[in-house]
C-alpha cells in the first residue's frame, strides 16, 4: 500500500497524458491549472477543494475504485499486486467504497452553456443537436457544461464537466464523481457506419462537427488519453472496423495516437490518424479558421 501511496505524481500524470509544469516549489498541469502537487506525492485542486495522494487522484479523475487504483499504481511500479506481504497489509484496511455515479442537478435553461460554446466557435445547430439528444446540459450549481456519456445499456454512466468561465484561456475541467471512464462520451450509435472517430474532448468533437457539416458517423471523446472507452465501444459494436484517431496535435496526443494505432491495427482494424491542419486541437483550428474568414470579409 505504501508503494502505491508514495507514487511520484508528476511521473504518473505524465504517463496519463497530462502536461506537467513546474511552478516555483510545486508542480501543476497545463490541463488543470488549479491543481497543485507538493513534494511530488500529494495533490490539491483548489477549484474543487479536494486533494490526496496518487490513489485518490486515480479515484477522482480516472473513475477507478480503491482496489483498481492500487492495482494500477502497483503495475505502474512494476510490482505484483498479489504479493503476500501486500495482501496482508490490504486486509488490515477495508477499501473505500467507490462513489456512486450521479449527474449534477440540471439548470432550468442552458443559456450560459450556449453562450460559452458559441464563443468557442461551435455552430448553434451543433449545440442544439447535442442538447436535444440529451448529450449536453447546464448544471444548476456552477453553470458548467455537462457532457453526458451513455453506456451500452442506454443509461448515463459518465459525465465530463467543463466550466463556462475561462480564466486566461484555462477553465475548470473534471468528471462527475463515480464516472465510468470506460464509457467516455459518445454520439448515438450509427448502425450504417463502420467507422468511429476518436477525440480527446467533447468540445473537439463538436468542433469537428462544426467544420464538417453533415458529419454522419460514430464518434466518441475519451476525455483523457486512456483508450478504455474506445476498446469498450469496439467490443460492443463489432460491425465497426475502422478507427480514425483525431487526437490533439501535440506530443502527448500524437504519442497516444501512435500507441493506439499500433494496438488496433494489430487487432485487425483499419486505422487512420487525422490531425487538424494547423493549431493544437480541433477547437483551436476551428477558431483560427473562423478568425481568418472574418479578416477576409
What can you see in these coordinates?
The chain has 297 residues and is α+β, with helices and mostly antiparallel strands. The chain is 36% helix and 19% strand. The protein has helices spanning 2-5, 9-15, 54-62, 66-76, 84-92, 111-119, 124-132, 202-211, 228-236, 251-266, 282-295; strands spanning 20-23, 26-29, 35-38, 42-45, 50-52, 136-138, 145-150, 156-162, 173-175, 185-186, 195-199, 218-221, 242-245, 270-273. The protein has a five-stranded mixed sheet. A four-stranded antiparallel sheet has the order 6-7-8-9. Helix 3 (54-62) crosses helix 4 (66-76). It is globular, with a radius of gyration of 20 Å. The termini are far apart. Residues 80-92 have low confidence and may be disordered.
Shape summary: globular
Report strand %: 15-25%
The main pleated sheet reads as: 5 strands, mixed
Give the proportion of residues in helices.
25-40%
Radius of gyration, CA atoms, in whole angstroms: 20 Å
**Count of strand segments:** 14
Give the low-confidence spans: 80-92
Number of helices: 11
What is the H-and-E element order? HHEEEEEHHHHHEEEEEEHEHEHEH
Q: Classify the secondary structure makeup into a structural class.
A: alpha+beta
Strand order of the largest sheet: 10-12-11-13-14
Quaternary structure type: single chain
Query: Mean pLDDT, as a whole number?
Result: 87
Distance between the termini: 62 Å
Domain DUF3991: 115-187
Protein name: Toprim domain-containing protein
Biased composition (Basic and acidic residues): 81-90
Region (Disordered): 81-105
